[in-house]
Design a protein that fits this description.
Layout: E1 2-6, H1 23-37, E2 44-47, H2 56-66, E3 73-76, H3 83-89, E4 103-107, E5 110-114, H4 129-141, E6 145-149, H5 160-163, H6 169-181, E7 186-191, E8 198-202, E9 205-209, E10 216-217, E11 229-230, E12 236-242, E13 245-251
Parallel strand pairs: 1-2, 2-3, 5-6, 6-7, 7-9
Antiparallel strand pairs: 1-12, 4-5, 8-9, 10-11, 12-13
Helix pairs in contact: 2-3
Length: about 280
Amino acid sequence: MKFIHMSDIHLTVPGEIIDGLDPHKRFRQALDHIETHHSDAERIIITGDLTHWGECEAYEALNKAIEGFPIPVRLLLGNHDDREAFIQMNPNHPLDTNGFVNHGEQVDDMTFIYCDTNEPETHAGHFCENRLAWLQGILTSRADDCVLFFHHNPRPLHQPAMDSIGLVPAHSSPLMVLIRQHRRHIRHMFFGHTHLTVSGIFAGVPFACVRSTLHQGMPEFSKSEWLHGANLAPHYSVVFMEPDNTVIHQIPFTYDGPIKLSGTGWKDWAKQESVA
C-alpha cells in the first residue's frame, strides 16, 4: 500500500498570505507534484490545520482544490480549524455520534482511523472521554491492522514550547494506555502540528510527523516560551506499508533545481586520475 501524508496547509481566504507565503500556491504545488509522481497512491491524508483562521471561504477553497482529484483525500481538524465552519462547508463529512470529526475506513487490508483533537479557542490538543470511548470502540471492533492519524502530537517531543500546545496531559495519559493495550494491531501513528520531521515510538507504536506545506518549525529543546521557525523547505510524506515493513520518504516538492545523475556500478565511484 502507498499513501500520502500531508499536514498544516493553513489555507486562507484566497488572496491572503501568511509570512509572505501564499498557502494556496503551496498546496497546489503539492497536489500537482503528487499527481505527477505518485498518482498510484491510495489516499492523501491531511492531518489538520486545513485553514489558518477557520473561515468558510478557506474551506470552500480547499474543497474546490481537491474536487475531482484522482486520489481520495481525507481531512482532519487542527488547532487552527473551526469545527462548525468545517461541518457547514462539508455537511456530508462523517462524524461520530457526539459530533466530532472522527471516523474510520477500510483501506486494503487495514483500517485507517482519523481522530479529531480540535478544541475551540486553544492551540493545545484535546481527546476527551467521548472521543477516547469512540476510539476504544473502533479499535476493539477491528481485528486487522490499524493506522492512527491525529493533528496534535499525542505525547511530548522534548520541545517545551511545542509540547505546551500538544495533546493536554489529562487526555494524553489515558490515550497512551489505550494505545498500549492495542499496540499489537496498531501499525503506525501519524500527526502534524509541529511543522517538523519527527519520528519515534509512543506506547510501543511507531510514529511519524511531517513538515508543513507552508512555513516550518525549527527544533528547540530549551525552556523557551517561544515557538521557533525557519525558512526551510516544505515536505509531504510518501508512505509504503507492506505486511512486515513500513517505509516513509520526505518529499521536498518545491525544489526545482538541477538533479545530479550517478551510476550504481563500482567503477562509477572510483577515484579519477587527474589529467595534467
